[in-house]
Automatic annotation (TrEMBL):
It comes from Rossellomorea oryzaecorticis. InterPro entries: GntR_C, TF_FadR/GntR_C, Tscrpt_reg_HTH_GntR, WH-like_DNA-bd_sf, WH_DNA-bd_sf. Residues 13-80 form the HTH gntR-type domain. This is GntR family transcriptional regulator. Keywords: DNA-binding, Transcription, Transcription regulation. PROSITE patterns: HTH_GNTR. Pfam families: FCD (PF07729), GntR (PF00392). Coiled coil: none annotated.
Length: 216
């Protein structure tokens, strides 16, 4: 099982949090490939940890659908099912849409400017064909809105779903286009004007529009 040794080790995290975040990232970006068997001893050595936090993190990753544990046998990275994007995006779109609606009335001028700046950065990355960096900035755009709602339930559910979105991106199920730039602008405008229904509708279309570009 090939495991990189030059990864950064986050500080101020528990061993379990560190293990969970790093293993999840390796699964998302394909370092640990679909179907690969995971060895908790090797993972513990790579992460400078004992086996207990590794096992605990693998249990959490199983709950989230990133690994499958076969008691007494093995733990394997789950296969990526490209068609699953059709099940993944609708609930994420609904949560993001609700976030846009809830954020109106709370969002400040400073935060609106922050969204505009993030979208400008996003546009530059799209135009330069820097797809993964654009995906991360797109996440940043939406995360600002989620944080404004101060709704921990939405935040936690979106975080879990977003991790699967990144994994699908690496397996070419998701394509970001210039359309998202204009939709972001429209979302910002609707939020400036206090148009809850419009902001929510555009946000939902922003996520579901990805399905129009999906090719199984």
């Amino acid at each position: 099982m090939p495991i990189p040794t030059n990864h950064s080790k986050p500080v101020r995290q528990s061993a379990k949090e560190n293990a969970f975040n790093q293993i999840q990232e390796w699964i998302i970006d394909g370092t640990l490939s679909p179907g690969e068997k995971l060895n908790d001893t090797e993972l513990a050595n790579a992460l400078g940890s004992s086996r207990t936090p590794i096992r605990e993190s693998l249990q959490l990753l199983e709950v989230q659908g990133f690994v499958k544990m076969y008691p007494g046998k093995s733990t394997e990275v789950t296969e990526i099912e490209r068609e699953a994007i059709k099940d993944l995006l609708p609930p994420l779109a609904a949560l993001q849409s609700l976030s846009a609606e809830l954020a109106i009335g709370q969002i400040t001028e400073e935060q609106l400017k922050q969204l505009e700046d993030i979208n400008e950065h996003f546009a530059k990355l799209i135009h330069s064909n820097n797809a993964y960096a654009a995906l991360k900035v797109d996440e940043e755009f939406h995360q600002v809105i989620i944080e404004i709602t101060k709704n921990t339930y939405i935040k936690n559910m979106v975080k879990s779903l977003q991790a699967h979105v990144r994994r699908h991106f690496f397996h070419n199920s998701i394509i970001l286009t210039e359309r998202s730039i204009e939709e972001h602008k429209a979302i910002i405008t609707a939020m400036k004007n206090g148009e809850k229904d419009k902001a929510a509708a555009i946000m939902k279309d922003n996520w579901l529009g990805t399905l129009d570009d999906f090719q199984p």
